[in-house]
Write a structure and sequence with these properties.
With 440 residues, this protein is α/β, with parallel strands linked by helices. Helix content is 44%, strand content 12%. It has helices spanning 2-14, 64-84, 105-119, 165-175, 178-185, 187-200, 209-222, 224-230, 236-253, 268-293, 303-307, 317-327, 391-400, 407-410, 423-439, and strands at residues 22-32, 97-102, 148-150, 262-263, 266-267, 310-315, 345-353, 358-366, 375-376, 389-390. The strands form two sheets. Strands 1, 2, 3, 6, 7, 8, 9 and 10 form an eight-stranded mixed sheet that branches. The structure holds 2-acetamido-2-deoxy-beta-D-glucopyranose (5 copies). The site of one 2-acetamido-2-deoxy-beta-D-glucopyranose has 4 residues, from helix 6.
Length: 440
């Protein structure tokens, strides 16, 4: 009996150094913001933008529920990475942590709320006059943590829907395919879209269905009775059909087709995936490689990465789903709603086997706002048989989805006129294409 207790105690601590020869070097995560107001709705909906008053008011704003969800999430992260594993410092260290948010109020405020849970509690850890000012007006224990961001429309890393003409053209190519034509003509899909069009007072198609589905999801959380009383055409049955169709549309939008779609010598699905999830997966993978290369090096170029232990992207369901799609795990990770929920998060951990000096990665997933665990999902990745998998596998996945050119250039490269590789041809096409697109 005593032996069992001792063993389970050992296992609890074993997390930091499994078998004594594994060491955690870097944690990177991409999380979704918390509960929010809808992004838009159709014109006949009685619940319009003016009816959303929390979190500053209007569409797309984080609610107090969403703030609390991220506060709890931050506390969970503290429990795991600070208290249980002793990986991160007890007090905020500017060298260890970097937080990058997309330039949206809800993701920035989610990051603030998360870090409040992780490093801003009045639990006696933080030092007054050192971590925060000694002033009666300052909330005791609150340590502000810097949140970085970049222009949303040009954020090709964390925003899969950044401005990108190439993606728009690829999506149009996809929609013209036999598979997507057949999907839109399928009687259940066509009837649903017609019904919604009639009831919404505007055209509902596969492009705007996911937004409408999202609005109705949010209205059910915050105004279910009003929704049922005022949108009398809305029913659980209809919502379930919308969920199924929206799920399929999101897969298509991310380049996941049942039949490979080759047009103009391009694998259209892969090309879409490269644009939506390729940059962020490559950034994550490259940062792991940089961490490895800088191990035990003191050169100036290594200073930042050597100190870094935790990098978080505060982003969107679309960001996480795009990562699933480039990793080929979109059908296995999310069990229930089929799409990342509020505060869902994917974690990439870099581990080093200190005996043979080889790097491994581990992927975990937080399912929803009440999840208390980060579930290991590494084995879902093709080629991985254990929770820890050779970093080479991740590098290979990243390479497969690496954008061919810097995104600003690549997004102006028309997939309908490019024939093969060859950067001279690319550059010529880019300059012509940017003229054409700028007119559009
Ligand atoms: C939305 O807000 C408007 C203006 O405040 C109000 O007249 C209307 O009743 C509200 N609608 C609902 C469904 O609450
Ligand atoms: C962010 O909040 C400001 C007001 O604080 C508002 O004007 C703006 O529209 C919001 N932006 C987004 C993207 O929600
Ligand atoms: C479409 O609406 C009609 C009535 O407006 C209803 O009888 C029918 O079941 C609806 N179909 C779908 C797919 O929701
Ligand atoms: C909203 O109301 C409907 C019908 O009463 C119910 O089936 C559904 O579960 C409710 N949704 C939420 C999120 O409470
Ligand atoms: C670390 O590497 C050594 C030497 O190759 C090996 O014996 C050991 O099993 C590895 N540890 C783990 C946890 O994989």
């Amino acid at each position: 009996m005593k032996g069992i207790i001792l063993l389970s105690l050992l296992c609890r601590f074993a997390d930091t150094e499994i078998n004594g020869d594994l060491k955690l070097l870097l944690v990177q995560t991409v999380w979704r913001h918390g509960d929010r107001s809808p992004m838009k709705t159709c014109q006949t909906d009685p619940i319009q933008e003016r009816n959303w008053t929390f979190g500053g008011g209007g569409y797309g704003q984080l609610s107090p529920i969403g703030m609390k969800q991220h506060l709890k999430f931050g506390k969970l992260l503290r429990k795991k990475y600070v208290e249980e594993m002793g990986f991160l410092s007890k007090r905020y260290s500017s060298k260890e942590i970097y937080i990058r948010s997309t330039d949206r109020n809800r993701t920035i405020i989610s990051a603030i709320s998360n870090l409040l849970g992780m490093y801003g509690q009045n639990d006696g850890t933080n030092v007054v006059g050192m971590d925060y000012p000694d002033d009666a007006d300052w909330p005791a224990g609150f340590v502000p943590v810097a949140i970085h961001t970049s222009d949303h429309s040009r954020d090709h890393v964390a925003n899969p829907d950044s401005a990108c003409n190439r993606q728009a053209v690829l999506w149009a190519m996809a929609k013209s395919s036999r598979e997507l034509q057949a999907f839109q003509e399928r009687p259940d899909v066509a009837v649903l879209l017609l019904n919604l069009t009639r009831n919404c007072g505007e055209t509902v198609n596969i492009d705007n269905l996911p937004d409408l589905h999202d609005a109705l999801y949010v209205e059910q959380i915050h105004a279910n009775d009003t929704l049922r009383a005022t949108n009398t055409w809305f029913s659980d049955e209809m919502y379930n059909m919308m969920t199924a169709v929206a799920r399929q549309v999101r897969l298509y939008k991310n380049g996941i087709f049942n039949e490979a779609l080759i047009m103009n010598n391009l694998d259209v699905g892969l090309e879409i995936q490269k644009i939506r999830g390729g940059s962020i997966l490559n950034e994550i993978s490259t940062r792991m490689s940089a961490k490895m290369e800088c191990l035990n090096k003191n050169t100036p170029g290594c200073k930042w990465i050597s100190g870094l232990k935790y990098y978080a992207y505060s982003a969107h369901d679309s960001t996480i789903f795009a990562i699933f799609c480039v990793m080929g795990i979109q059908d296995t990770v999310v069990e229930d709603a089929g799409y990342p929920q509020y505060t869902a998060a994917i974690f990439f951990e870099l581990w080093l086997n200190i005996t043979d000096n080889r790097p491994y990665f581990k992927v975990t997933y937080r399912q929803n706002p009440i999840s208390e665990e980060l579930r290991p999902i590494t084995k879902m990745v093709d080629g991985c048989t254990e929770d820890l998998c050779s970093l080479e596998i991740l590098k290979k996945l990243a390479k497969r989805s690496k954008p061919d050119l810097p995104m600003e250039q690549w997004c102006e490269l028309n997939p309908q006129s490019s024939s093969s590789t060859g950067s001279l041809l690319y550059l010529a096409v880019v300059s012509v294409m940017s003229l054409i697109y700028n007119d559009g």
